[in-house]
UniProtKB/TrEMBL annotation:
Principal location listed in the UniProt entry: membrane
Keyword annotations of the record: Cell membrane, Hydrolase, Membrane, Transmembrane, Transmembrane helix
Protein name stated in the entry: Phosphatidic acid phosphatase
Pfam families: PAP2
Single GO cellular component term: plasma membrane
Compartments (UniProt record): Cell membrane
First and last residue of the signal peptide: none
CDD domains assigned to the protein according to its UniProt record, in alphabetical order: PAP2_like
Membrane topology: Multi-pass membrane protein
Keyword Lyase part of the UniProt annotation: no
GO MF entry, a single one: hydrolase activity
Boundaries of every Phosphatidic acid phosphatase type 2/haloperoxidase domain copy: 64-171
Amino acid sequence: MRVPAGLRDRDHRLTRRMAAWESPAARRTLPAVEEAAEHTKLWWAAALLMAAAGGWRGRKAAAAGVLAMAVAEVLSNGVAKQLVERRRPPTEWIPHDDVADRPDSSSFPSGHTAAAVAFTAAVAPSWPWAAAACAVPSVLVAAERVHSGAHYPSDVAAGAVIGGAAAALVRRAPRLLVRCRP
């Protein structure tokens, strides 16, 4: 992928700075967040909790979140990663052991971030408080993807845009389908 020089330089500086972040709290929290978000486990657990404890509103929010997450996964991992090949940040930039556990796929975009943002944004119209609770781990997932050396900040930003677009599509799909009916 050909990245404009100015963006590439900012990406490189911010990646190195975030990877070198030595906060003891971050070193404990971020790997746990990544493990929970792996294979979208965190969002499935949130959906189950919402559906079980939130009544009709919780089931509606959970369904929207899961559907948006699925759309975001298809768009980010099934389409964008196949179209854009970008190497992961160099391992020598990452001064900790998390770098050994990186995927081999394209760095662009962050599928973890796309799923997190899609789930959270799709939940928001039905249950704003649940979305606010989901926003915290969503931000942590995005930060962890850069901190671990799995992605550049622009990969995470692209994932967030894809996630937001997936949530918007899921929100508008019923109205679009009604309009298209003969």
